[in-house]
Amino acid sequence: MSTSTKETQGAPAIEMLRPAPAAKKRRKAMKRGELELFTRQLATMVSAGIPLLECLGIQCEQAESKAFARVLGTVIADIRGGLDLSRALAKHPKIFPAVYVSMIKAGESSGQLDEILVRLAEYLEASAKLRREIKAAMTYPVVSLFLVFGITAFLMIVIVPRFKEIFDGLGVELPGVTKAVMALSITLRDQFLLSAAVIGVMVTAFVLWKRTPNGIRAVDRFRFAMPVLGPLFKKVALSRFARTFSTMVKSGVPILGALEIVAETAGNSQISEAVRKAMDSVRQGDSLATPLSREPVFPPMVVRMIGIGERSGSLDALLEKISEFYDQQVEAEVKSLTSLIEPLLIAVMGIVVGGIVLAIFLPIMKLQEALTPK
Q1: What is the pLDDT tens value at each position of the chain, 374 positions in all?
Q2: Structure letter (DSSP) for residue 286
Q3: CA–CA distance from 97 to each of 166, 206, 247, 271, 314 (Å)?
Q4: d(CA 243, CA 294)
Q5: Which of 39, 78, 102, 317 could bond to 83 as cystine, CB 3.0-4.6 Å?
Q6: Residue range(s) of every CATH 1.20.81.30 domain in the chain
Q7: Which fold has domain 3-96?
Q8: How far is CA 15 from the centre of its chain?
Q9: What's the Cα-to-Cα distance from 35 to each of 49, 264, 353, rounded to whole Å?
Q10: Is the dihedral of CA 357, 361, 363, 366 positive or negative?
Q11: In whole angstroms, what is the distance from residue 72 CA to residue 224 CA?
Q12: What is the DSSP string of 171-219?
């Protein structure tokens, strides 16, 4: 479907840049999941033979957020001005990532835009499902840790200082652990703003360091090495790698271009660096599996399946199998994660809260022993 045909067929479609009547109720920010819904609906309409400009106009009118409606209005104007859909979308990288634009471009080049949109919708929906599973897995431990920190802060700032006054009045000799807890408690209470400022500076410094190349590498290595959560993060990263690569290859994107986009969207520096090294080998005529086999981040099963896919000409199908395998692994691990994390969090809470309580009661038990007649 050429751009000129789209313009001719879609010209009377809609006054796309005019906001819909319900626009006042829309949020300014783009809603989560809106891109997935847009892609699925666009794929359905294009497959039904509706002209592209008319499809975009309909989507512009029913967009749930003003931000996305404005972006679609700009895309429509650019297409009417003579740009291809891929080039018009490429002007908005924060909305349409590189993998999205590259697949649309491949669909335009092959004349199979409707099929590519369907694959793209499936890719986005699968990625969104994986994100939801990870979010569900992380919600419980994050909430639990906040509760632990909240209870600890309440005990240290409100409860423990009251016992110090009691112990000072009794003239009891405090054990070392009690003295340490009391000193920390008084510091947190009397120097709360200073303590908060120090913690804030430390958190800010960590966030800034985490954005540096060395910080990114260190954090990514730590994620994979974490107990309990580390294997889950690695499986998620491998699933994303395989799904993105499979979708790009299946859509007709050249292998080096697909690898470049996979490296950019991998979400983990170890995988990105391994893929970039593999690109250098592929440029020199080597197979993809050979350089990947030298990278510890890729399990032997993944490397062997990629090698078989290269030799049999079914790389996209085997990559899809890898993605499905890891998706199933992630889903199963997420279901068992709560039962694994719960005892760990209970142990942490017991050690922290129990340690504070023990530090308070040690002097009381010591005083009781001193007052008990022998």
Answers
A1: 444 333 333 333 333 333 333 333 333 456 668 888 898 898 899 888 889 899 999 988 888 888 889 999 999 999 999 888 989 999 998 889 888 888 888 888 777 888 888 888 888 888 888 888 778 777 877 888 888 888 888 888 888 888 877 777 776 677 788 888 888 888 888 887 887 888 899 999 999 998 898 888 898 889 888 877 788 888 888 988 888 888 888 888 888 888 888 888 777 888 888 898 888 888 888 888 888 888 888 999 999 999 998 888 888 889 889 988 988 888 888 777 767 777 777 888 888 888 888 888 877 777 766 666 55
A2: -
A3: 62, 27, 14, 19, 26
A4: 21
A5: 78
A6: 3-96
A7: Receptor-associated Protein (1.20.81)
A8: 37
A9: 21, 19, 45
A10: negative
A11: 39
A12: TPPPPHHHHHHHHHHHHHHHTHHHHHHHHHHHHHHHHHHHTSHHHHHHH
Tell me the C-alpha to C-alpha distance, in Å, between residue 177 and each of 108, 148, 159, 192, 257. 70, 20, 16, 22, 60
Phi-psi region of 244 (alpha: psi -120 to 50; beta: other; left: phi over 0): alpha
Gap between the Cα atoms of 292 and 194, Å rounded: 50
Q: What whole-number distance in Å separates Cα of residue 15 and Cα of residue 21?
A: 13
For residue 246 the two structure tokens come to: 């499979």
DSSP state at residue 27? B
The residue assigned the tokens 């991998």 is 266
Q: How many CB atoms are closer than 10 A to CB 185?
A: 23
- The upper half-sphere exposure of residue 200, i.e. CA atoms within 13 Å in the direction of its Cβ, equals 6
Token duo for residue 115: 């099929």
Closest Cα to residue 152, out of 351, 362, 365, 338? 351
Owner of token pair 């199908």: 317
Entry field: residues in the chain: 374
* Inter-CA distances, 68 with 7, 87, 113, 148, 201, Å: 21, 17, 21, 40, 36
In the chain, which residue ranges form alpha helices assigned H by DSSP?
3-10, 34-47, 52-62, 66-80, 85-90, 98-110, 113-154, 160-170, 176-190, 192-210, 213-225, 229-250, 255-265, 269-283, 289-293, 300-312, 315-371
Sign of the CA dihedral running 299, 305, 311, 313: negative
